[in-house]
Design brief:
Number of strands: 22
CATH class: Mainly Beta
Largest sheet: 6 strands, antiparallel
Bound molecules: fe (ii) ion
Helix content: 10-25%
CATH superfamily: Jelly Rolls
Oligomer: single chain
């Protein structure tokens, strides 16, 4: 191999926008997932909440359009992303404020952290939000938020922004009015789609679940019943997925969301999977081992597990963790893999 001749060749073809694959093959096609995403943890009480409340004194929701602090992965600086494919941010809506109506091709989930009774409007229907609710605004649906209560409202926004950027398929549009006209009463979509029934003649008009609000008032008793009636799965505790009831698939096409209860003193066995995952602590205290790092967490903290990093959780008190990832997209593409440490026979 004539290194000087090769170097000259590389320089020459670079000017014609070509490059030798043999110099980068093992980076482009790595033997195992190689990711810039770092394990990271944000404390709600010490980091997120103080900064969010400070932002409330500096800019109004209307001025900001959305008053959100991006939870940016330190391995993805400047990209506004929590993982390669997903975005997470913490949004504050103060009493009397409106986050004006808009729509975009990105799908969003809201996981409610603090406050009670502010609303999200989607497709002409308002849904009041309570802590632990997961509210979804499917792609290209008009949505706005309003807080008519006397307390601040905080929720985590999870969006597929980096994924949509990757595909080059971002479109957005502002509404004509700050608040969209309301055409259906509170509870309408719940009655139609969350009662194990479907309206006669209903036909799907877009991807994803027609339910807007997966209420914690329903989720929590379901978890409690599982915890009473089952022994916990050694790797996941008592874990349930948020589904589109019309298909049994994930509630959103680009984001797979789940919630798990870990009994007091329970420690999960390590797992790893190819979907980098964003966790939100709903209840309880404990710690998680993510790769080489250990994070102690409390309610409302957020942490990220990168692709293929080993992860395990231990609960000091009974704990509930909400999580979301791009697992559904990976499964659809035949890419998703998982490894379970010390699997039980019944768990293989
Ligand atoms: Fe939005």
């Amino acid at each position: 191999m004539d290194k000087a001749a090769l170097g000259a060749f590389y320089d020459r073809i670079a000017k014609q926008d070509m490059a030798p694959l043999w110099e980068s093959l093992h980076v482009l096609v790595s033997q195992e997932p190689a990711t810039p995403v770092a394990p990271v943890h944000w404390s709600y009480s010490e980091a997120i909440r103080p900064a969010l409340m400070e932002s409330g004194n500096l800019i109004t929701a209307e001025e900001a359009e959305r008053r959100v602090l991006i939870l940016e992965n330190p391995g993805l600086k400047g990209q506004g992303a929590a993982t390669n494919s997903l975005y997470a941010g913490m949004q504050l809506l103060l009493p009397g404020e409106v986050a004006p109506c808009h729509r975009h091709t990105q799908t969003a989930l809201r996981f409610v952290i603090e406050g009670e009774g502010a609303y999200t409007s989607v497709d002409g229907e308002r849904t009041p939000m309570s802590p632990g609710d997961m509210v979804i605004t499917p792609q290209w649906t008009w949505h706005d938020h309003g807080n008519e209560t006397d307390r601040p409202m905080v929720w985590l926004d999870g969006l597929d922004i980096p994924m949509v950027r990757f595909f080059g398929s971002s479109f957005a549009q502002g509404g004509n009015t700050a608040q969209q006209p309301i055409s259906r009463p509170v509870g309408d979509s719940r009655a139609r789609f969350a009662s194990n029934l479907l309206p006669h003649g209903w036909e799907r008009s877009r991807a994803g679940s027609p339910i807007f609000n997966y209420r914690y008032a329903d989720t929590r008793p379901a978890l409690a019943t599982l915890a009473r009636n089952d022994t916990p799965d050694p790797h996941f505790g008592h874990r349930m997925r948020y589904i589109d009831p019309t298909t049994g698939g994930d509630a959103m096409p680009t984001m797979a969301a789940a919630i798990q209860l870990l009994p007091q003193g329970f420690e999960t066995r390590p797992t790893r999977s190819t979907d980098a995952t964003i966790f939100v602590v709903v209840e309880g205290e404990g710690e998680s081992r993510i790769g080489d790092e250990t994070f102690a967490w409390q309610p409302h903290d957020v942490f990220v597990a990168p692709s293929w990093a080993w992860r395990s959780h231990s609960a000091k008190s009974e704990a509930v963790l909400f999580s979301f990832s791009d697992a559904g997209v990976q499964r659809h593409c035949g890419l998703w893999r998982q490894e379970l440490a010390n699997p039980d026979k019944e768990n293989v």
